[in-house]
Every structure is written in structure tokens, then in C-alpha cells.
Amino acid sequence: MRCGFGSDAKRGLRAERGAVAVEFAIILPVLLLLILGGMDLGHRYFLGHLASNASREGARYGVKYQVNPSTLVPFAPSDLAISNYVKTGLGYAALLDDANLPVTPVIVNNILTVTVTAHKHWWVLGSLPGFTNPQTLTAATAMALER
């Protein structure tokens, strides 16, 4: 006596042979968008963190090195000195891929505010609605000048 399970089981497997490839082809673009979009969003938050660190280090530099070492007379740090320190001394211009990294120090009522502006160019998400390309990231830090 023959059991009919063997022939039916083989026929069922042959009928679904290409189904896995078709399902994978359908899901692959969605999967790639999720993975690459997640990397793009992670890069945006990384650049925001770098801009925040750059503004904090620029403000710390401006507050700490405000005394002329030869005369020990306090003076306001120059915009160029703070900007050069952030861009070249710390290398944030290279990290943020922005050779013209805008660093704006402002002193009002003995409070130094350093603002750093960076630009994020979306790799994948720039073509989707709601993602402006480039996105402007701004970070500001305020510290009191100690006299």
C-alpha cells in the first residue's frame, strides 16, 4: 500500500520554489531604506553632538584664556582666536566636513556666547518630504567671563 503524502508534499514544495525570492525582492527596498535611513539619522545626531562640543570648547577657551600672559591684564578674547581654536586647534572643521565652519563669539554683559553652525547633507533621506537638504545645525554655549 502506498501512502499519498510523499507525492503531494514534493509537489507543494516545487510550486513555492520562487516565492521566497519574490518576497525578498519586495521587502529589500524597505529594509534598505530602514537601515540606511537609520544610519543617516544617526549621522545627523552625531553632527549635532559635534557642533555642541565645538561651541562648548570655544566658550571654555574664550573664558579660560582671557588674560594676557605678559601683563596679566584681562581682555576680551578675539573672535578670530576663538574661531581658529575651534576650527584648527580642535579640528572640528574637519570633523564636521565644513571648511568654512561658522563660529560666532559674542560678549554681552560679561557673558561669552559661542555659536557654531554646521550643515548636514542627507544621503538617503534628502529625497523624502520633510528633510531639507542641507539641514542647518546650530549649537550655542554661554559662559560668564570671570574678572
What are the key terms here?
147 residues; alpha+beta; 3-stranded antiparallel sheet; 4 helices; rod-shaped
Gross morphology is rod-shaped
Helix content: 40-55%
> Strand order across the biggest sheet?
1-2-3
Beta-strand portion reads: 15-25%
Sheet of most strands: 3 strands, antiparallel
| Low-confidence parts | none
Number of strand segments: 3
| Spatial gap, N to C terminus | 103 Å
Mean pLDDT over all positions: 81
Provide the structure class: alpha+beta
Number of helices: 4
From N to C, what is the helix and strand string?
HHHHEEE
- CA radius of gyration is 28 Å
Plain-language structure description:
The termini are far apart. The chain has 147 residues and is of the alpha+beta class. Helix 2 (19-64) packs across helix 3. It contains 4 helices and 3 strands, in the order H-H-H-H-E-E-E. Strands 1-2-3 form a 3-stranded antiparallel beta sheet. The model has no long low-confidence stretch (mean pLDDT 81). Helices cover 49% and strands 18% of the residues. It is rod-shaped and about 90 Å long. It has a domain at 45-144. The chain has helices at residues 5-15, 19-64, 79-89, 92-95, and strands spanning 103-108, 111-120, 135-144.
